[in-house]
Amino acid sequence: MMLDIKSLDRKELEDWIQKKGFEPYRARQIWHWILKKTVASFDQMTDLPKSLRKIMNEEVDLSPLELVKLLESKEDETRKYLFRLRDGNFIESVLIPELEKGYFTICISSQAGCMMGCKFCFTARQGFKRNLKTSEIIDQVVQVKRSMSEPSKLRNIVFMGMGEPLLNYDNLIKAIRIFIDPYGMNFSHRRVTVSTCGLVPYIRRLGEEDVRVNLAVSLNAADDEKRSLLMPINRRYPLKELMAACKRFPLANGRRITFEYVLIDGINDSIEDAKRLVELIRGIRAKINLIPLNPSPGIEFSPPPWNKILAFQKVLIESNLTAIIRKSRGRDIMAACGQLSGRYGKDKAKIKEIG
Ligand code: SF4
Q1: 109 lines ligand 1 (CB under 6 A)
Q2: Mean of all residue pLDDT scores within the chain
Q3: H or E stretch at 29
Q4: In 160-305, which ranges are continuous DSSP H helix?
Q5: Pick among 3.60.20.10, 3.30.450.40, 3.40.50.300, 1.10.150.530: CATH of 3-61
């Protein structure tokens, strides 16, 4: 079996290098080539001995993901990447330009499919396939970075793609450590955000880690009845427990919890809903992202009209909360989570047509 190199942390790579008869510092060189220079072949690692490159060519799997489709939005330069895993499953990553600020955020997947069953989510309709390996998480960032004309502008990593990251906990934490390791990808921990649908025990566990990342919670309703309707996980961990875990979550200095709130016409978008939301998050250092639902095939809901969205936001702002309307990016390229892989996953024959 080939060595899955992007699943190794620095120490594990050093151990492997030493077993092969080379000095441990070679591991740092290899990481530099893989994670900083984002090279696609061992032959590009020109400062390594030829004998080591030969071993790696024979024994090491450099890239577990195959890029099968890259779509760029004509509207806003959002890019969507469709990757095929070795077992034939598909995952997606999205590169999002922060237009005013001039840098980029990458939204990555943590699982192929998802088992959480949120009613407004297209990924949920595809069911759960499996957890991603650490290498499959890392390789999304490596390959997307490689495709950028100015890779240094990739500033933020958000785990908001396919899957519930906290259900793939060990691989998630290992990937985060590689992202923030100065010898690895060297991202600031303040620039990494993990989004969850509300798995309370794992939120607590994440808070106890020595790596401090940002937390985003997909909230979508401010009362248990509505939230349980939209998100089955709420029956297991109702809002009282979720909010208590959020209050206790240790934030880095100056950071806030992000509450994601997908606005759905006639379901969770009334003035009363907004007022309940104000009460719910009182006392938590938070900001709210209001996301008008991105319509997807087979999803019965639709986004509210613009005037209702603005009225909802006004209630929050007048209560001194930070509430930003996040317009759907890249609608023309199916940038809503799961849409692209859903389409190709169902009709695998199509992949053959793609260059
Ligand atoms: S919204 Fe997130 S947690 Fe819910 S089903 Fe979709 S991918 Fe899973």
Answers
A1: no
A2: 92
A3: helix 25-31
A4: 169-180, 200-208, 224-230, 233-236, 239-248, 271-280
A5: 1.10.150.530
Q: How far apart are CA 136 and CA 183, in angstroms?
A: 19
Helix (H, G, I), strand (E, B) or coil at 168: helix
Q: What single DSSP character describes residue 36?
A: I
Of 206 and 294, more confident: 206
Structure tokens at 99: 């237009």
Give the residue, out of 337, 339, 340, 341, with the most ligand 1 atoms within 8 A of its beta carbon, to mutate for a pocket test: 337
- Cα(245)–Cα(204) distance, integer angstroms: 6
> Is 66-353 the same fold as 3-61?
no
- Per domain, the residue ranges of the chain are 3-61, 66-353
- Least confident residue range of 108-112, 297-301, 326-330: 326-330
Chain segment 22-59, per-residue pLDDT in tens: 999 999 999 999 999 999 999 999 999 999 999 999 99
Gap between the Cα atoms of 224 and 268, Å rounded: 12
Cα of 123 vs centre of ligand 1, distance in Å, is: 7
The third-level CATH classification (topology) of the domain covering 66-353 is TIM Barrel (3.20.20)
